Model the fold of this input.
Amino acid sequence: MPSIAFEFGALSCDDHRARDYNIDLRGVDPFCRLPIQTAGRSGDATMAVKRVNQNMLGGLERPALTWLAARIPGRVTPDHLTMIGVAGAVLTASGFVSSRWSLSWLWVSCLGLVLNWLGDSLDGTLARRRGIERPRYGFFIDHTTDMFSQALIFLSLGLSPCAHFGAACVGLIAFLMMFAYTLIGVQVRNVMQITYFGFGATEIRMLLLVGNLLVLAFGIVHLQFRYAPLSMFGALSGHDLGISSISLAAAALIVLSTVKQARSLSVSDPAPASTLSSK
Done:
């Protein structure tokens, strides 16, 4: 099975048609390579990236997605499901912002979270089941829509009475850090780490959903801490505490994982002998 190495930059038609499938960049230094394997015929390629998805809810989620994918009408495509996921994010944001006037709008946010999960999780499952994967297109669309959807959800949460805007921004920063770290892992290890310690996008949505239901049942509960440094933030809601705790844990995880991966890569990708001899 031949291998293709993509280097970003300007490429010529002759290079694109080369028999050895090397697409070359001239005039610029490549900043990224995407290893590709052909699936048996020219132009039909799949990304050689290992997906690691061991989320806590996977035992329930994966069978449910498989069951749903088997019953989706043929006229419904993965792109349709992706659009449903984005529409769910917009609906979630609308519910959060509107809850400033009435907490009952959080029901709309709950519905949006379900639709966002359904569209985002089911599009890839449907494509794999039907054998219609589009690796590079799917990779691009999936991750860009995830990025915009999560940014919209977190920012709108900060505009709701459930959480301070600063706390919501901290949550968004943590998500984007994990997002970037995952893409770095694709480049250096050919591994797409979708979940960390069993925690991923599905678990984030579930926590937001549970938080909404608790607020609908008991109202917004604020806690006042007398001791520094928490006292400087004033009254904090349950959303504030949950988002801050998870974000700090995520940041610590990235630091520890970075040190571990740097040590591993220093062994598997050692410095050239000429560099070592010069020291």
Observations:
- The beta strands are 3-7, 22-23, 33-38, 45-47, 50-52, 191-193, 222-223, 236-237.
